[in-house]
């Protein structure tokens, strides 16, 4: 069975983005090459040619689930399909529609969506955020890949937001990068 993996970058204080979906404060000098080599499918199509990975095969994920807030920067830039190399599902009750056949707008229960996707054949499912959606999907999250950046945001979008749901995960691996960034893998 496929797993739902929350692959996410966070500040020291647990924010995935600052106000207005800002992620420009994250240091990426060492993280970006690591992502390009290890998780190329998590980079948007417009960035891939600049990193020399335009045609890189997917290594972990072939399906992406994200919320409106995570999708909004692409939508505002006029990009309907930011990750055409994976199946894209946007969970939102506030987006009227998406004019791209490669992107599926889901207005229903995200838990039902993920449970259905887990039954399909394929690679794992990447949960890209945001915090509200991650909070709703916490019962179905099997693994976390947390890219920790050595910076405090103090305000923005939390990695998880919603009801109090203490959920235990076990660290399975860690990797420290030269600039203080760290990647930690967790399993439920």
Automatic annotation (TrEMBL):
- What sequence ranges are listed for the domain Bacterial bifunctional deaminase-reductase C-terminal? 3-172
Alphabetical list of SUPFAM superfamilies matching this protein:
Dihydrofolate reductase-like (SSF53597)
Its GO biological process terms? riboflavin biosynthetic process
Name of this protein: Dihydrofolate reductase
* Organism of origin: Nonomuraea soli
Q: Organism's domain of life?
A: Bacteria
Q: Name one Pfam family in it.
A: RibD_C
Example GO molecular function term? 5-amino-6-(5-phosphoribosylamino)uracil reductase activity
């Amino acid at each position: 069975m496929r797993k739902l993996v929350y692959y996410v970058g966070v500040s020291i204080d647990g924010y995935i983005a600052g106000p207005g979906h800002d992620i420009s404060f994250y240091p990426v000098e060492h993280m970006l090459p690591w992502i390009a080599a290890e998780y190329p499918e998590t980079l948007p199509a417009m960035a891939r040619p600049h990193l020399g990975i335009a045609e890189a095969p997917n290594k972990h994920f072939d399906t992406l689930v994200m919320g409106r807030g995570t999708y909004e920067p692409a939508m505002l830039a006029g990009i309907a399909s930011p990750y055409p190399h994976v199946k894209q599902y946007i969970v939102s009750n506030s987006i009227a529609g998406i004019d791209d056949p490669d992107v599926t707008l889901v207005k229903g229960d995200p838990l039902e969506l993920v449970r259905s996707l887990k039954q399909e054949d394929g690679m794992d499912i990447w949960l890209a955020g945001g915090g509200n959606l991650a909070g709703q999907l916490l019962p179905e999250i099997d693994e976390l890949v947390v890219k920790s950046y050595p910076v405090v945001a103090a305000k923005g979008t939390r990695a998880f937001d919603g009801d109090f749901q203490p959920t235990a995960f076990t660290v399975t691996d860690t990797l420290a990068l030269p600039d203080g960034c760290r990647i930690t893998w967790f399993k439920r």
